[in-house]
Write a structure and sequence with these properties.
It is built from four helices and four strands, in the order αβαβαβαβ. It is α/β, with parallel strands linked by helices. The chain has a four-stranded parallel sheet, sandwiched between helices.
Length: 130
């Protein structure tokens, strides 16, 4: 080597694992599944809905919460989870925080989804623990 072109040479299995871990740390991973939860005034159920996603053994997901103009504490609850899981859970709001309907809220989620697959979960529903 002339010093200008560097190559990483991996000789052992241990080095391969360390190298792959370094690459993984530098490369933001894209989630396999995007879960979209539109919500409107669901403070009674939203926490349980979000926790049901977190409790799954499958962990390659992102959760997009879309506030459809809630006037109760739903958005505060959603923000608490965003603060706890900033790399996994994201919060979006309808324009001008208006109630424009679940289909419009789902469309906001779809536009912001990064997963290879998209699924919808109603804010008053839960995933069964596996």
């Amino acid at each position: 080597m002339d010093g200008r072109n560097w190559s990483i040479i991996v000789n052992t299995r241990s080095s391969q694992i360390k190298y792959q871990n370094m690459i993984n740390a530098l490369t933001p991973s894209m989630p396999l599944v995007t879960i979209i939860v539109p919500f409107f005034n669901q403070e009674l159920f939203l926490r349980e809905c979000i926790e049901s996603v977190i409790q799954q053994s499958f962990n390659d997901w992102e959760l997009l919460l879309v506030n459809d103009g809630s006037t109760d504490k739903s958005a505060v609850i959603a923000q608490e989870f965003v603060n706890r899981f900033p790399d996994k859970i994201f919060l979006f709001h309808q324009p001008s925080n208006k109630n424009l309907g679940a289909s419009n809220a789902r469309n906001i989620g779809v536009k912001n989804a990064r997963g290879d697959f998209i699924t919808f979960l109603d804010s008053d529903d839960v995933y069964i623990a596996d």
